[in-house]
Amino acid sequence: MKQASLILSVVDHNAIELSPRISEAEVSDYIALLKPRVMSLVIFTAFVGLLIAPGHFHPVLAFTSLLCIAAGAGASGALNMALEGDIDAIMSRTANRPIPRGRITPAEATAFGVTLAFFSVLTLGILVNWYAGALLAFTIFFYVVVYTMWLKRWTAQNIVIGGAAGALPPVVAWVAATGSLGVEPVLLFLIIFFWTPPHFWALALFRSDDYARAGVPMLPVVAGPDATRLQILLYTIVLVAVAIAPWPLGYFDAVYGVTSLVLGAGMLVFAVNVYRRRARAESLRATRKLFAFSILYLFALFATLGLEVLVHTIAPSVW
Amino acid sequence: MSDPRQPEGIVLTEAQKKSRRQRSIATALVLGVLVLLFFAVTIVKGPAVLNRPL
């Protein structure tokens, strides 16, 4: 009798232990997994990639391409969060994400991310073309495996190499529209690629305590703020040169060239300020300004390219 | 006579029911958009939809 009640109690206990976790995650939690702000930049740069691509591309196919690229970016974000729940919980910037808050489990985020990645690549391949689908798959792989799994916790060059993933969307869009590669999307790739280090190192400078606590080897944590300031300045010089180069090379016209010159001068001024101002409060202000301006810089540069094409199309004689 | 220890199964709370319903609606909408997308592209491409070179 005593043995029977013992078995029953074990069964009851196991029943409680094995009861499934019922999710209370809302749609907004899943939307947060997609990193909507990163996604908006991806959509914007990809849209410009579509606009500057030569030839006619049906609007429905263009919309499909953008949707797939956006979904692929969202999948990358979800898989990144699934893998970085431990880091996100420690850092104040990311502690409110769905996984650290316990709204979504890493397994649920992984399932969501893999499903989204699979369908985005497949849909782009089937409905548009397989070159673009393959490039989108490579972009997701690069962000999740090369950047998140491998580089991020291993080297201070994480965002330099990993930046390639963020630079690929306009190339994917161009390939979707043309079925081949050209010099122009490579130029767009290079602009975003060289823009990424100054942008993220500026963020890392004023969040370095966060990164240090989480054990992420960002440049300010590993090499110190002074070395980071120098690297920001050097990368900004390369960025400005790379962004201006398409104009004298004849790929983009004078309106883009002048915009690039003016904005580039602004980037250089902010980067020099970051390099020179080292007192705590001053340095913080300068770094925040560079971070904010870098977003405006990329947006304005790409917007100019997009507007040129739109104006050319609508009123060829105006521009 | 029912056994008082008979398990009741999984009983969802109101919050769980609400979030599950929200997720179900979102999933249905996404699937609907996917169907419309495939339909629209099929119409746009016409017979060329069957031509599938790399």
Describe the 3D structure.
- The complex is a heterodimer of chains A (319) and B (54).
- The model of chain A is unreliable at 6-11 (pLDDT under 50).
- In chain A, helix 4 packs antiparallel against helix 6.
- Chain A has two domains: 24-180, UbiA prenyltransferase (Tetracycline Repressor, domain 2, Orthogonal Bundle); 182-314.
- Chain A starts with a helix and ends in a 5-residue tail after the last helix.
- Chain A is 78% helix and 0% strand.
- The longest helix of chain A has 35 residues, at 280-314.
- Chain A is flat and about 65 Å long.
- Chain A has helices spanning 2-18, 27-33, 36-52, 59-83, 85-90, 106-127, 130-151, 158-167, 169-178, 183-206, 208-214, 219-222, 225-244, 254-276, 280-314.
- Chain A is mostly helical and 319 residues long.
- Chain B is mostly helical and 54 residues long.
- Chain B has a domain at 14-49.
- Helix content of chain B is 59%, strand content 0%.
- Chain B has one helix and no strands.
- Chain B has one helix at 14-45.
- Chain B is elongated and about 65 Å long.
- The model of chain B has no long low-confidence stretch (mean pLDDT 85).
- The A-B interface holds A 15, 19-20, 22-27, 30, 58, 60-61, 64, 67, 119, 123, 127, 129-131 and B 7, 10, 12-13, 15-16, 19-20, 22-23, 26, 34, 37-38, 40-41, 44, 54.
What distinguishing features does this structure have?
heterodimer; A: 319 residues; mainly alpha; Tetracycline Repressor, domain 2; 2 domains; 15 helices; 78% helix; B: 54 residues
Main β-sheet of chain B, in a few words?
Answer: none
Look at the structure and give the mean pLDDT of chain A: 92
Largest sheet of chain A: none
Mean pLDDT of chain B: 85
As for the number of domains of chain A, it is: 2
Secondary structure class of chain A reads: mainly alpha
Per DSSP, the total helix count of chain A is 15
Radius of gyration of chain A: 23 Å
Which architecture name of the largest domain in chain A does CATH use?
A: Orthogonal Bundle
User: What does the overall shape of chain B look like?
Assistant: elongated
Q: Can you give the helix content of chain A as a percent range?
A: over 70%
**Helix and strand sequence of chain A:** HHHHHHHHHHHHHHH
Number of strands of chain B: 0
- Cα separation of the termini of chain B: 68 Å
Strand content of chain A: under 5%
How far apart are the first and last residues' alpha carbons of chain A, in Å? 93 Å
Radius of gyration of chain B, in Å, reads 22 Å
Give me the number of helical elements of chain B: 1
> Beta fraction of the residues of chain B?
under 5%
